[in-house]
């Protein structure tokens, strides 16, 4: 048998140990569910824009004449983009926009480059300006709205992205049927 003062010392220790063991059994609050992380890459977003524009041989598409300096800058930007020099391509297109600030095609190319760079708000800004200045029909119109949709999706604005996607349908107008 234990002496009385040994028992009085062990009793509080046993109670403390039991309290700690019970505290460990108490479940904590469930972890807060994190919103799903969007793993869409900028290149995948641009591919979605390309797919939305899609070739349509039944549709009328008018291509304007271009200033030769602007056309050279567009070609340079395309070459830089293919070489993965996105900053250089952006600079070339920015220079082109200094020459023809209201060219919807150049604005769209700059928007798509911003999309590739992960600059979602800037991509939407360029595409919105292109929508305001450009044709309301055709492949370029669809590219504008698809870019806006993708930039909104990238920012987690799903409701606004749905609205932009709905605008895509209005961009398709069939060409003239000839008999």
Descriptive overview:
α5 runs parallel beside α7 (about 140-155). The longest helix has 22 residues, at about 5-25. Helices cover about 65% and strands about 0% of the residues. The model has no long low-confidence stretch (mean pLDDT about 85). The protein contains 8 helices and no strands. The chain has about 180 residues and is mostly helical. The chain is elongated, with a radius of gyration of 30 Å.
Largest sheet: none
Number of beta strands: 0
What's the average pLDDT? 83
> Can you give the helix content as a percent range?
55-70%
The number of distinct helices, counting runs of at least 4 residues, comes to 8
The oligomerization state is single chain
Please compute the radius of gyration using only Cα atoms: 30 Å
Low-confidence segments, ≥5 residues, pLDDT <50?
A: none
Shape: elongated
The SSE order reads: HHHHHHHH
Helix/strand/pairing category: mainly alpha
Strand content: under 5%
Kindly report how far apart the N and C termini lie: 114 Å
Write the layout of secondary structure elements.
Elements: H1 4-25, H2 42-53, H3 68-82, H4 86-99, H5 104-116, H6 120-133, H7 139-154, H8 158-169
Helix pairs in contact: 2-7, 3-4, 4-5, 5-6, 5-7, 6-7, 7-8
């Amino acid at each position: 048998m234990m002496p009385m003062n040994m028992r009085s010392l062990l009793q509080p220790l046993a109670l403390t140990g039991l309290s700690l063991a019970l505290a460990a059994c108490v479940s904590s609050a469930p972890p807060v569910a994190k919103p799903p992380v969007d793993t869409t890459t900028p290149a995948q977003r641009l591919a979605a824009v390309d797919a939305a524009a899609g070739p349509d041989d039944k549709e009328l598409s008018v291509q304007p004449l271009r200033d030769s300096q602007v056309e050279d800058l567009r070609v340079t930007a395309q070459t830089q983009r293919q070489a993965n020099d996105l900053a250089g391509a952006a600079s070339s297109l920015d220079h082109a926009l200094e020459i023809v600030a209201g060219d919807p095609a150049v604005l769209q190319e700059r928007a798509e480059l911003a999309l590739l760079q992960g600059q979602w708000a800037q991509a939407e800004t360029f595409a919105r300006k292109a929508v305001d200045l450009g044709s309301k029909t055709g492949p370029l119109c669809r590219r504008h709205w698809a870019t806006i949709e993708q930039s909104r999706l990238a920012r987690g604005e799903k409701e606004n992205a749905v609205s932009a996607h709905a605008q895509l349908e209005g961009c398709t107008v069939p060409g003239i049927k000839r008999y």
